[in-house]
Amino acid sequence: MGIDLKWLEGDAVNSAQLEALLAAREAGACDFLLVDVREPYEYEEAHIPGVDLLRPTSRFQEWAGELIELSRQKPVILTCRTANRTGQVQQIMKQHGAGKLIDHRSGIMSWHGPVEGGTYGGD
């Protein structure tokens, strides 16, 4: 799949788009943060290579302010298992003045790329 940097201007990306964006970031063509909001045990089971931060939803109040500030500096893509938690986090944070937050639609369950720590999604 080719890369369209306008994906970083939308509210959501699918797994193929995220995979292309990660490759583009690796090549220096774009910049964003990829934040996994699952719990540590879920992350250890399997996660998408390139995750910058693990911010468990169960500790949302501890990190929400930090992520709101980061989202004002560069786009933040949120990922979880199925996009349920990321959708909730995205909605709440936007209500509190967050900048650019992008939901990874269907989460790691729809991911067909490589994973670290195990297998998931399309594997």
CATH topology: Oxidized Rhodanese, domain 1
| Helix-strand sequence | EHEHEHEHE
**What is the CATH first-level class name?**
Alpha Beta
Beta-strand share of residues: 5-15%
How many strands?
Answer: 5
Shape, principal axes of CA atoms: globular
What is the spatial order of strands in the main beta sheet? 1-5-4-2-3
In whole angstroms, the N-to-C terminal distance is 19 Å
Domain module count: 1
Write out the CATH superfamily name: Rhodanese-like domain
Q: Biggest sheet: strands, sense, closure?
A: 5 strands, parallel
- The structure class reads alpha/beta
**Rg (C-alpha, Å):** 13 Å
Mean model confidence by pLDDT: 94
Q: Segments where pLDDT lies below 50 for 5+ residues?
A: none
Please estimate the helix content.
25-40%
Helical element count?
4
Gross CATH architecture: 3-Layer(aba) Sandwich
Characterise the protein shown here.
- With 123 residues, this protein is α/β, with parallel strands linked by helices.
- The chain has one domain (5-110): Rhodanese-like domain (Oxidized Rhodanese, domain 1, 3-Layer(aba) Sandwich), CATH 3.40.250.
- Helix content is 36%, strand content 13%.
- It has four helices and five strands.
- Strands 1-5-4-2-3 form a five-stranded parallel beta sheet.
- The longest helix has 14 residues, at 60-73.
- InterPro entries: GlpE_sulfurtransferase, Rhodanese-like_dom, Rhodanese-like_dom_sf.
- It comes from Nitratifractor salsuginis (strain DSM 16511 / JCM 12458 / E9I37-1).
- Residues 28-117 form the Rhodanese domain.
